[in-house]
Amino acid sequence: MNVILLRNFRENAVAMNPTTDSKFSNIGLIAKPGDSRIAPVLETLRGFLLNMGLNVHLARSAALSLGEKEYLPSKAELARVCDLTLVVGGDGSFLNAAREMAQEDTPLVGINQGRLGFLVDISPERMLEALASILQGQYIEDRRFLLEARISEDKRQLALNDVVLHKWNTARMIEFETRINGRYVDSQRSDGIIISTPTGSTAYALSGGGPLLEPSLDAIALVPICPHHLSNRPIVVHGDSAICIEASGRTDPNHLRVTCDGQSSLTLEEGEHLEVRKYPHPVRLFHPLDHDHFTLLRAKLGWGGRP
Q: I need a labelling partner for 286 at 20 to 30 A (CA). Which of 25, 45, 129, 239 fits?
């Protein structure tokens, strides 16, 4: 970020300091680790919030970017202390924060310093204006559900985008059976399957040929990855469905992996299977009042241009 833009941010921070009380008093800051572009944005945000008389609490990632030594030890602890948390980075940073903070019911706001930015939808250029409105209660609240992938009591993970069962350490297809609410659906040979929330329908599931789901839908998409039979197509089921997937045929469970949001993995042992259900605690996202999902899709996916 250049010096002129940073100076304009700081001037705007003073100009937009509202005289009315904020709805929030404790604000958390989370940053994408190891990104040199983050520090000026964090510094501006922190100055803006302190100028409003608010308390600012740092996650470890934000403290490292700012050169500070004091921070809260975990994102879950940050969520317990804060009324609102700002995530500065890309969608990956947001996904990580959402999983760790979901149980605490703390709303999240995303400032985009990544590439696509479906979840971190506020640009640095307009973050102070958007944040000033949000802090005064002018926002759209958007609740997104997560999935819980469970193999055993001590092997479980959350996912905001998707749970993916995929082949591992083999060039061959894998074979597995899918059951929904205890009912047999199919057996398929493929490279795996993507179990996606509406939030994740613009991620891996989209690349795999899955449908785009409006974020408020209570639905889960199951998208096969490179299936052997072309009749294996994506299906959409109710969000309360219990999904069970088990290795079958000659597939060795050691050749399977379960990956959540592309960031954490689980292994399967002989006799184990994957269960996926909706997690009971949704993530709360705050957007500016002019936020529109379809405007975001047009911008990110290049819709509406001339052929």
A: 239
Taking the alpha carbons at both ends of the chain, their separation in whole angstroms is: 34
Rounded Cα gap, residues 143 and 212, in angstroms: 17
Length of the chain in residues, anyone? 307
**Candidates 91, 121, 142, 162; catalytic one:** 91
State how far the Cα of 284 lies from the Cα of 102, in Å rounded to an integer: 8
Cβ atoms of 165 and 256 closer than 8 Å: yes
Say how far apart CA 41 and CA 124 lie, in whole Å: 7
**Which phi-psi region, left, alpha or beta, contains residue 194 (left: φ > 0; alpha: ψ -120 to 50)?**
beta
Closest CA to 6 of 128, 136, 130: 128
Q: Residue written as tokens 């179990």? A: 195
Cβ-count burial 256-293 (b if 16+ within 10 Å, e if not) = bbbbbbeeeebebeeebbbbbbbbeebbbbbbbeebeb
- Rounded-to-integer distance, Cα 48 and Cα 120, Å: 19
Instruction: Give the angle subtended at the CA of 296 by the CAs of 294 and 300, to the nearest 5°.
Output: 120
Predicted structure pTM score: 0.90
Q: Shortest CA distance to 87 belongs to which of 17, 130, 27?
A: 27
Give the pLDDT confidence score for residue 204 in this predicted structure. 97
Q: How far apart are CA 213 and CA 6, in angstroms?
A: 37
- What pLDDT score does 14 carry? 44
The token duo for 292 is 């529109």
CA–CA distance, 71 with 197 (Å, rounded to integer): 32
| CA nearest neighbour of 290 among 155, 178, 126 | 126
Question: What does pLDDT average to over the chain?
Answer: 91
**Helices 38-51 and 127-135, axial angle in degrees (round to 10):** 40
Beta bridge partners of 162: 196
Is 240 an annotated catalytic residue? no
